[in-house]
Design goal:
single chain, 15% strand, seven-stranded mixed β-sheet, 256 residues, alpha/beta, binds D-malate
């Protein structure tokens, strides 16, 4: 089963982290939301403290099924589900697999499309490089792109994320990359999403352009789009209070 944190009581909200990180990225939001909700934050397969998916081809859909199995184990039938970046891919896959279990959808610095052929090749090249040189090479390559330009290397948030990447395992990184490379394109079905949806993006996101998140928001009926001006790809850490407030407002829409 997935490793997870489970804080607070009440209606459930699930927070899914990005690549190749862990539930630790949600620390501020868990603290804020647990005053009012039951906040469940898993480590996705092969990352943080969670085991790798056993056997077979890794996929985002399989990650989503692992999250559903965790919710089964915790006795949670329905939850609001928010995902950051890769966690957003998992949230969309989960909503497709079991729409009746998703009370609301939160999509943070993420996108609904699949990889281009060049994007897939770049992931396979990254996987090879990480196998040869180890996770620190990913931390060096990815670190500066995760934050708004100008975020000082050596700052607290920067170091926290670099530490998380360095601590990831080669197998966990590689399998997550394969899963993302093969992920489904959800764009054609966005108009069918019927639950309160928050799309949160950041003007200085260097990995997933805010325009792409905005297009996704425009395709989901009634979705709220929030663009944070001063953050990059890691708004949970760069603008923690703004993200917590946006999630709290979304949960009020979901649960009243
Ligand atoms: C993430 O932050 O989860 C990843 O960078 C997303 C991606 O590579 O598509």
């Amino acid at each position: 089963m997935l490793a997870y944190s489970d804080a607070g009581r009440g209606q459930a909200v699930v927070l899914l982290h990005g690549f190749p990180l862990s539930k630790a990225t949600w620390g501020a939001q868990v603290n804020h939301l647990a005053a009012q909700y039951r906040v469940i934050a898993p480590d996705l397969p092969g990352l943080g403290e969670s085991p790798l998916l056993s056997g077979g081809t890794p996929s985002i859909a399989r990650m989503a099924r692992e999250v559903l199995a965790l919710l089964d184990a915790l006795g949670v039938q329905r939850a609001a589900v928010a995902g950051h970046s890769m966690g957003g891919y998992v949230a969309l896959a989960l909503q497709k697999e079991a729409p009746e279990r998703v009370a609301g959808l939160g999509l943070i610095c993420t996108q609904a499309g699949a990889d281009t052929p060049e994007g897939r090749e770049a992931r396979f090249a990254t996987a090879r490089k990480v196998r040869q040189e180890g996770p620190p090479t990913l931390a060096e390559g990815m670190g500066p792109k995760l934050f708004a330009p100008g975020t000082a290397t050596g700052s607290e948030v920067y170091e926290q994320v670099v530490r998380l990447i360095r601590r990831s395992t080669v197998n966990g990184i590689q399998r997550a990359l394969y899963a993302m490379a093969d992920r489904e394109d959800h764009r054609a079905r966005l108009s069918e999403i019927q639950v309160p949806t928050l799309v949160l993006t950041a003007a200085q996101d260097q990995l997933i352009p805010p325009e792409r998140s905005a297009l996704m928001a425009a395709a989901i009926p009634g979705a709220t789009l929030i663009t944070l001006p001063d953050a990059g790809h890691m708004p949970m850490l760069e603008a923690p209070d703004a993200v917590s407030s946006a999630l709290a407002a979304w949960l009020t829409r979901v649960y009243g």
